[in-house]
Amino acid sequence: MNSDSSANRDYATISPSAKVLLLMKGHTGIPFAREAARLISLPDHFIPDFERKDFGYWARVVHFESRYQQVNALLADIQPSHILELSSGFSFRGLQLSTEQEVHFIDTDLPDLIAAKRPLLEALQAGLPEAKGKLEMQPLNALHETDFRAITDRFAPGPLTIINEGLLMYLNTEEKKQLCAIIRNVLQERGGYWITADIYLKDEARFAGLLPKDELQQFLEAHRIDDNKFDSLEAAADFFRGEGFEIDREAEPDFGSTDALQYLVASAPAELLEQLQNGGRRIQATWRLKLAE
Ligand SMILES: C[S@@+](CC[C@H](N)C(=O)[O-])C[C@H]1O[C@@H](n2cnc3c(N)ncnc32)[C@H](O)[C@@H]1O
Hints:
single chain; 293 residues; alpha/beta; Rossmann fold; 7-stranded mixed beta sheet; 14 helices; 7 strands; binds S-adenosylmethionine
């Protein structure tokens, strides 16, 4: 069942952010990102600009590379054999994991995005060794329970791990609750986990003036994502507890393991770097959630 607000909303207006993210990730070590950025830019040439001296830009790139790694870290210690990624955008985690591991991975996003992603996937798959696992790519509006169920029914019986990054800040509280209810129902039946990197905290003041007034920033402001962020980690934990989830584990960010950190350091004013090193307030967390007992 869809609430009226989600049934009437055009979620495809969020999809352009996925391409912006891919072009940024083309400057990181995320598997397939540079090649996918090249493919999506055709007929133009994607030329990564590592000389760019722009602290706010590199801070974002490091953040997105780290966020991707945080989800992977929480997957690695449970080694799930069934993974469903929601709102995957132009991310190719499913390609990487299914190539290397015996996993059934279903990669999903809205229909138009999946249609645009399919040729990229085919191009990236050409020349790879035979996959150890199985990868499917399917259109899915994550707020449509019937469609969601049709996707989860594609997995063999057994626990399921659902993952997402970069979605919850586009959903208002009602929509977040709707998604929680769908995931809760699925996990109640099958067992498993929900890994979400979307524990973003409201923090406008700290970054005011720091982030570039670029296309992404204008997009985020137009979508009023700050309104959809959590007031604090405690408020986020309370929200998920109210929806029947508890935190199983929190990822530990390791910015030192990102490729992009070197470019951030090269473009950072000394006082800003010091501020960062002395541990500013967290703006985001990645949690592995399980059903509350
Ligand atoms: C900021 S992008 C993040 C993409 C990717 N996860 C990443 O981190 O690179 C947000 C994605 O959410 C998708 N999206 C928005 N609303 C959605 C919905 N209701 N169901 C599924 N995906 C949705 C968009 O199409 C877009 O790809």
